[in-house]
Amino acid sequence: MKYTPRPDTKALKTIVVLLSLCSLVFIGFGLAIGGFSADVLRALAIVPFCTAMLLTIRFGLYSYTYVLEDFEFIITQKIGNKTRTVCRLYYTDITEIIAYDKAKDKIKGRKKYDYRVKILPQKFYCLFYEIGNENEVILLEPDENFVNALSKYIQDDILND
Q: What is the spatial distance between Cα 47 and Cα 41, in angstroms, rounded to a whole number?
């Protein structure tokens, strides 16, 4: 089973446009006034511009596909025409998958990997796994059918061990 979440380009475009406008306002005020404060405003204009660029790259160019195979859960990342595997876990390593709202307290102190495509997701999940002594979490945006299928794979592997 495969699932590829769809990005929310409307929210991304809105945030990027607002950050770009903020940068232009700083530059405009920097040009309108003189002296040292103009230099500070022009330097500050770099921050929202760079933030807009980073958000565009992270949430506009990347896409992720979640794959359930017989023994493994795989996440592939696509940038343009290049596809690479960024995560590969056996079902026995996964401890649970729960909604973020219920997992806020459990996430603290764990290393997080973010494989979401929406900048402001309505609902997303936390996939907890344990390899050796490391307890880590992956942030995902699967649909309900994918979560149910993954939960079944996890439960079946736990019962088979």
A: 10
CA angle 136, 80, 66 (to 5 degrees): 35
Chain centroid to Cα 35, Å, comes to 41
Tell me the pTM: 0.81
Give the distance, in angstroms, between the CA of residue 83 and the centroid of all CA atoms in the same chain.
17
Q: Which of 160, 155, 140 is nearest to 77 (CA)?
A: 140
- If the chain, 161 residues long, is cut into consecutive pieces of 10 residues, what is the mean pLDDT of each piece? 88 93 90 81 90 92 91 92 92 89 86 90 90 89 90 71 52
Amino acid identity for residue 100 in this structure: Y
The residue among 118, 125, 127 whose CA lies nearest residue 143 is: 125
